[in-house]
Amino acid sequence: MVLLFQYLSSMSGKTLYTIFLTLLSISLFSQIQVFDKFETFEKQVLIKQNDTAYLFNFWATWCKPCVEELPYLVSLSHQYRKDKTKIIFVSLDSKKDSGKLESFVQKNLIGQTIIHLTDHKYNNWIDRVHHSWSGSIPASLFKKEGISEFHEKEFYSYDDVLMQWVTFLKT
To answer: By the 8 A CB rule, do 93 and 117 touch?
Structure first.
């Protein structure tokens, strides 16, 4: 440990800064989990059955209403972080826009669970998320213990999403 400290102390500030940025970018990049096939996302994430309540928010960086509601969902995530609650942001951005998504996440969604679902065959899977989903975004799926509730709408305020979430948790 002493040798590591001596080695780091001998480096210039610019070198340390470069190492820091590299480590930061690696941690941010690993924050986004990519699924190229809906079936894999469904098996590994969507159909989990446990005692956790999930809020899946389907959105994209190019969708203005989606971006406008994200701060409310992030606030909800912070408020419920100690409970058995998980808010998962499912980006539907195209694969070619991965860089734009990464940049957006670095600025707006640090510390959140982000999934990049790049399966562009939406008509093959949107009804597997929820039978009433037309495919428009933003859309949110609330799930817990075999119960689900679907919201194909924008949340216009923190109170709006909080009220819907609290009501769902009481069911």
So the answer is: no
39-50 confidence digits (pLDDT tens): 999 999 999 889
Burial letters 68-106, b for 16+ CB under 10 A, else e: ebbebbbebbeebeeeebbbbbbbbbeeebbeebbebbe
Interior/surface letters 129-153, b for 16+ CB within 10 angstroms, e for the rest: bbeebeeebbbbbbbbeeeebbbbe
Question: What are the residue boundaries of the structural domains of the chain, listed by start?
Answer: 1-30, 32-170
The model's pLDDT over 96-130, given as tens digits with 9 standing for 90+, comes to 999 999 999 999 998 999 999 999 999 999 999 99
Beta-bridged to residue 57, according to DSSP, are 89, 140
38 contacts 117 by C-beta, under 8 angstroms: yes
CATH of domain 32-170: 3.40.30.10
